[in-house]
């Protein structure tokens, strides 16, 4: 005999153990075939033969349930599939063994009483009313307590809720079938002692219709009646719609409101097919007297409770041809033949706009001032360059001017006025007493400046005429060799060596006797 254990959660096809029958033959005569001959577990387990090892493998055939049956007993038979006819009298060539299988208990999740739930509820159900119940229980022997909850991912609006103790579903918000006719939610059942063991079930909630919407016109109707219409002529057919869905289908009725039950101009004829016809009651209509008629119509259904609404139909009086085709409906059209047509009015308006644009452009061009050119004469060039490049006579030319007068000058340029514009204010320049040693240089420069300022053919104000002479602030005094001719005797230039490397060249040139001889 053999003994095996199997957890109740083992899926079909799970191997539980192996059994072995010994055969001293070899080759084909040693092959063994296993089968279950009897036992209370023949429909729950199966056995297959391993051709390589000649063993029988016990497997699970159906789902086990510890709470239903704990122990199974099997009788397994091992036979030779290829018996030799010469030795049949020595048989039988088979043997049997008893296999016992114990089912082990496993903590299982709760099990619902149904694979899914369908609940129907009226859309006018009050908040807090119970709409249905789901039931689940622990299949284990312990029978642990169960708590229920709603998966909020399937009920984002939190319309439904559930009592955690008994699984009763109730409403948290009002329902609207016209907005959402179906709700599909998921309910979760969880063991209180072991929250890891849980299961869920789909719940389909169908909202039953209640007649809470009134019928209304199916479209916006643009209705007109010809001025030459005859009595009893159909001018419009209307229909209605309703958001509700009664089980027997829609049925609508049309009639005039009580105040207009006998309308002198129009009547309503119910066609008994959820449509109605608008009929004329007299001959001829005049736009000049009445261009528009308002016809209030009551629409109601036959469901419970009866819902009704009033729709107003606007009927315009229009001019039509002999075939009844509309040509014009506006009352203003009556005045157009005596005045201007619409095309003429549009043309006049466009002409006025064009004239206004031209006036604005002309005014803008007139206001734009043309700037006076700075250079009137075409021979004058603004970017003139005046160059004075007279070559001097060299160091020996001492007759042209007295260089000694340029040693200690102090000068200040006079303020020059722009010749291309009229000065707004003439400032009086305060003059100070000059400190030049020789007045001839000052007079020479001032004369040249005045000549340039007063010369009408002189370059424009941004041209530059420069007269420069050496100032008296240099600590080296004048280094010009021209002045050396005005002094008597040799000068001592040894002090140049004390002035630094910048004056080293001058010190070499004038400081030594060799340089003097050179």
TrEMBL record:
It is found in: Cell membrane. PROSITE patterns: CADHERIN_1 (PS00232), CADHERIN_2 (PS50268). GO terms for biological process: adherens junction organization; calcium-dependent cell-cell adhesion via plasma membrane cell adhesion molecules; cell migration; cell morphogenesis; cell-cell adhesion mediated by cadherin; cell-cell junction assembly; homophilic cell adhesion via plasma membrane adhesion molecules; synaptic membrane adhesion. Keywords: Calcium, Cell adhesion, Cell membrane, Cleavage on pair of basic residues, Glycoprotein, Membrane, Metal-binding, Repeat, Signal, Transmembrane, Transmembrane helix. Residues 2-112, 113-217, 217-334 form the Cadherin domain. It holds the Pfam family CADH_Y-type_LIR. GO terms for molecular function: beta-catenin binding; cadherin binding; calcium ion binding. It is a single-pass type I membrane protein. Its main location: membrane. Residues 1-28 are annotated as: Disordered. It comes from the Eukaryota. Cadherins are calcium-dependent cell adhesion proteins. This is CADH9 protein. It comes from Cettia cetti.
């Amino acid at each position: 005999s053999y003994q095996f254990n199997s957890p109740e959660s083992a899926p079909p096809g799970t191997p539980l153990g192996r059994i072995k029958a010994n055969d001293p033959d070899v080759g084909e005569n040693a092959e063994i075939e296993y089968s279950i001959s009897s036992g209370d577990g023949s429909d729950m387990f199966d056995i297959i033969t391993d051709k390589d090892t000649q063993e029988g493998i016990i497997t699970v055939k159906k789902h086990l349930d510890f709470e239903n049956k704990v122990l199974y007993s099997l009788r397994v038979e091992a036979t030779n599939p290829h018996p030799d006819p010469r030795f049949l009298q020595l048989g039988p060539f088979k043997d049997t063994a008893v296999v016992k299988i114990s089912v082990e208990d496993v903590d299982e999740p709760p099990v619902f009483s149904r694979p899914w739930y369908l609940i129907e509820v009226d859309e006018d159900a009050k908040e807090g009313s119970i709409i249905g119940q789901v039931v689940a229980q622990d299949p284990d022997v312990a029978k642990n307590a169960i708590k229920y909850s709603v998966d909020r991912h399937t009920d984002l609006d939190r319309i439904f809720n559930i009592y955690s103790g008994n699984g009763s579903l109730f409403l948290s918000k009002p329902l609207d079938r016209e907005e959402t006719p179906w709700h599909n939610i998921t309910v979760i059942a969880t063991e209180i002692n072991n929250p890891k063991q849980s299961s869920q079930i789909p719940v389909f909630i169908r909202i039953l219709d209640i007649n809470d919407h009134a019928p209304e016109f199916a479209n916006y109707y643009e209705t007109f009646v010809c001025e030459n219409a005859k009595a009893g002529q159909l001018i419009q057919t209307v229909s209605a719609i309703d958001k509700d869905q009664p089980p027997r289908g829609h049925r609508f009725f049309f009639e005039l409101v009580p105040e207009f039950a006998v309308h002198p101009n129009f009547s309503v004829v119910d066609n008994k097919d959820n449509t109605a016809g608008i009929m004329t009651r007299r001959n001829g209509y005049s736009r000049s007297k009445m261009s528009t008629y308002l016809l209030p119509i009551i629409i109601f259904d036959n469901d419970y409770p009866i819902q009704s609404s009033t729709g107003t139909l606007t009927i315009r009086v229009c001019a039509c041809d002999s075939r009844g085709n509309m040509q014009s409906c506006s009352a203003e059209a009556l005045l157009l033949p005596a005045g201007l047509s619409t095309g003429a009015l549009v043309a006049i308006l466009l002409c006025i706009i064009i004239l206004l644009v031209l006036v604005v452009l002309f005014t803008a061009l007139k206001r734009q001032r043309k700037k006076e050119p700075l250079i009137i004469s075409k021979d004058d060039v603004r970017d003139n360059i005046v160059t004075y490049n007279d070559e001097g006579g060299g160091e020996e030319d001492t007759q042209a001017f007295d260089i000694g007068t340029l040693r200690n000058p102090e000068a200040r340029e006079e303020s020059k006025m722009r010749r291309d514009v009229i000065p707004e204010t003439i400032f009086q320049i305060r003059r100070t007493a000059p400190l030049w040693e020789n007045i001839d240089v000052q007079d020479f420069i001032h004369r040249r400046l005045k000549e340039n300022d007063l010369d009408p053919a002189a370059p424009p104000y941004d041209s530059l005429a420069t007269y420069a002479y050496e100032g008296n602030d240099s600590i080296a005094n004048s280094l010009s060799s021209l002045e050396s001719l005005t002094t008597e005797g040799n000068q001592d230039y040894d002090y140049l060596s004390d002035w630094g490397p910048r004056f080293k060249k001058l010190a070499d040139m004038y400081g030594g006797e060799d340089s003097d001889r050179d």
